[in-house]
Design brief:
Number of helices: 11
Distance between the termini: 34 Å
CATH class of the largest domain: Mainly Alpha
CATH architecture of the largest domain: Orthogonal Bundle
Shape: elongated
Number of strands: 3
CATH superfamily of the largest domain: Ribonuclease III domain
Strand order of the largest sheet: 1-2-3
CATH topology of the largest domain: Ribonuclease iii, N-terminal Endonuclease Domain, Chain A
Helix content: 55-70%
Low-confidence stretches: none
Number of domains: 2
Largest sheet: 3 strands, antiparallel
Length: 228
């Protein structure tokens, strides 16, 4: 496939073609000259840029809410979808083993390549060009965000984080239920035994209490470095 078709999909014309080539080179192809350093750079730029956009987009959001929104946007699943939209797979430079095992379709390799391309664009065109590219790629996802997403998906996000780190799923225990049947108030504990973590959530429904507890557990795990 022609590199020009990829450049068109990326939406940026490289002055240094070697940077794009390096961004597409997996370590299985070259142990010395591969995209790992660009991936590190791109990951840092992506987190900063999305963080800045969310800071401006949600002026009333708390730090924990902004962190969860950012995590939902820059996670591997999202980056893999972007890679698939760009049709990156056929352009990746992989070693024989990875080629044989279908590495061009592997989520982690595709996500890493997206971050590496971001790093390459930064080195080639500077921060403003890089931020513009990220904004184009993420615009549809940013437009659909609300602060409610930081509440309603906490359990799902916690589950995904634990699964990504090969940890068992959490347990939710009801500690107390107060009030009349039509106005009950729940206190729920979210327990992640392998992380020695127990977080308490409260709310006027069991679901809300569980979501709050899961959100606190997410914060604790992210602050401890789990999933970073």
């Amino acid at each position: 496939m022609s590199p020009d078709s990829l450049i068109s999909k990326i939406g940026y014309g490289f002055q240094r073609a070697d940077l794009l080539e390096l961004a597409l080179t997996h370590r299985s192809f070259s142990g010395k000259d591969n995209n790992e350093r660009l991936e590190f750079l791109g990951d840092s730029i992506l987190n900063f840029t999305i963080g800045e956009i969310l800071f401006q987009q949600f002026p009333q959001a708390k730090e924990g809410q902004l962190s969860r929104l950012r995590a939902s946007l820059v996670k591997g699943v999202t980056l893999t979808k972007i890679a698939q939209q760009l049709d990156l797979g056929p352009f990746l430079k992989l070693g024989p083993g990875e080629l044989k095992s279908g590495g061009s379709r592997r989520d982690s390799i595709l996500a890493d390549a997206v971050e590496a391309i971001i790093g390459a664009v930064f080195l080639d065109g500077g921060m403003e060009q890089c931020k513009a590219l990220i904004l184009r790629w993420f615009a549809p996802r940013l437009q659909g965000l609300t602060l409610e997403d930081t509440v309603k998906d906490n359990k799902t996000r916690l589950q995904e984080l634990l699964q990504a780190n090969k940890l068992p799923l959490p347990a939710y225990n009801i500690l107390s239920v107060e009030g009349a049947s039509h106005s009950q108030y729940f206190v729920v504990e979210c327990v992640v035994e392998e992380a020695n973590l127990a977080c308490r959530g409260e709310g006027h429904s069991r679901r809300l209490a569980e979501q709050m507890a899961a959100g606190l557990a997410l914060d604790a795990l992210e602050n401890s470095g789990t999933g970073s």
